[in-house]
Write the structure tokens for this entry.
Amino acid sequence: MAVLLPGNGVPLRRPPRRARGSVMIEMALMVSVAVPILLGVTGLGVRLGRTLAGLQLTRDVAHMYALGTDFSLPGTQAIARTLSRDFSLTAGGTGVLVLSRVVRVYQTDCNAAGVPTCPNLNQTVFAQRLVIGNAGLRASAFGTPPGSYIDAEGNISSANYCKQPSLIAHGFDAVLTLAQGQSAYVTEGYFSMPEISLAYLGSPGGGYYVRLLL
């Protein structure tokens, strides 16, 4: 059927019903592809911003820890929480920082600790452990020393780390080999982001883990 346009009398033909249906199908296909891509790009942008915030927080705390800041004190832990703008470093919060001082046991260390027969000789062990935030989110990649060996300042005595197998930092030698008298200050951060979980990118829990050694 043709429709006469007013004024010039040139007929305007309407597209057949089959053509109109094809256009709708094409539009539906385009939307089904474009919308997930748009949402994915938006999610990646938000996630990138939050991972950078977690990295910056971990870096700041790592430098303070390596320079001798005592994070066993409530005041310095409050500073770490103030630096964390996007994550809550509380017992039930969305972030956790695990601070460890790691040393390698040599025979002179065993002799000084009064443990001449040294079970942990040539092993890399924890000499300090502090946790700020929600410890249930993620444990250290190198293990968790039993709390019975950790004092109020987070320190572990040389007599214990020279002989207790549970204080060995498993896998640390593959990351860094320490010479006699050296210490490594390790700061591990984990930040939960379930609201922007990207399971198809290998992060089903929506979390971000970062580790810095100084």
In short: The beta strands are 2-4, 11-13, 95-104, 124-133, 183-192, 207-213. The helical segments are 17-66, 74-83, 107-112, 158-161.
